[in-house]
Amino acid sequence: MSLGIVFLSEVFGTAMLTLLGCGVVANVALKGTKGNNGGFLMVTWGWGIAVFAGVFVAAKSGAHLNPAVTLGLLVNGKAEYAPGVAVDFASTLTYFGGELLGAFLGAVVSWLAHKQHFDAEPVAANKLGVFSTGPAIRALPWNLVTEIIGTFVLVFVILTFGGTPSGLGPLAVALLVVGIGVSLGGPTGYAINPARDLGPRIAHAVLPIKGKGSSDWAYSWIPVAGPLIGGTLAGLVALWVPIIATTAK
C-alpha cells in the first residue's frame, strides 16, 4: 500500500472522528442546540460512536487515528502498521501528519455545522471546550498523570487484544473509549490522543469565531505529552504480556 493512501485514509478517518466528537461537545455545550446540557455521559457516548465511525473509514490504513497508537505500535516492535505498510521513519511521519490534518479538518467542519450556535454562545470557555480538552482542576503535573493513565489503557488494551484498532474491531474500540471516558475522563476530559486535541485547538486559534477568547496554549502540551508518554509505556509493557501468558501455562 502506498503512503499516499495511508495518509488519505488517516486524514478522512481522523476527520470523521473529530467531526462527530467535537460535534457532540458542541451539541451539549453551546447555547440553543437541541442537545444543550445533555451531560458528560452524552459526550462519552458521542465520542465512542465517533471512534466507531472513524475506524471504519480508515480501516485500510489500520485506523490508528491517534499518534499515541502509532507510537505504541512502533515501540512494541511491530513489523507493520497495517498490512503492506512497513514500520519505518517515513510511514510513521505519514501517520502523524494524516492524523493531525484530519483532526484539524474535522473540527473545522464541526464549527461550520454549529456556526450560529457559536455566535450565540456567550461563554468563551464553552467554545474552546468544543475543540479541545481542559482540566476540571488545573494542576498540570496531575493532569499529565491522568492523560498518561488514560492513554496507557487505550493503547495497552488495543495491543494486547487486537494489534491495531481495525484488527480488534471498531465496536470494541468504541466501547473501550466510552469506558475510559466514564472511568477516567472526568479530571481532564480524556484527550488520550495528541492529534484529537492539537488539531482542533489550532482550528480554534485560526477560525473567525466570535468572542472565542484564548486557545489556552499554556495547557496545550498536556494532552500532547501525556498521550505520547502513555502510548509509549503501553507499547513497552505490552511486550511482556506474551511472556507472562507463556509462563502461566
From TrEMBL:
Coiled-coil parts of chain: none
Highest taxon of the lineage: Bacteria
Keyword Iron: no
InterPro entries linked: Aquaporin-like, MIP, MIP/Aquaporin, MIP_CS
Keywords, ordered alphabetically: Membrane, Transmembrane, Transmembrane helix, Transport
Cellular component GO terms, alphabetical: plasma membrane
Topology term for the membrane: Multi-pass membrane protein
PROSITE patterns in UniProt: MIP
Predominant location category: membrane
Cellular location(s): Membrane
SUPFAM superfamilies referenced in this protein's UniProt entry, alphabetically: Aquaporin-like (SSF81338)
GO molecular function: glycerol channel activity
Assigned protein family: Belongs to the MIP/aquaporin (TC 1.A.8) family.
The protein's name in its UniProt record: Glycerol uptake facilitator protein
Lineage, broadest ranks: Bacteria, Bacillati, Actinomycetota, Actinomycetes, Micrococcales
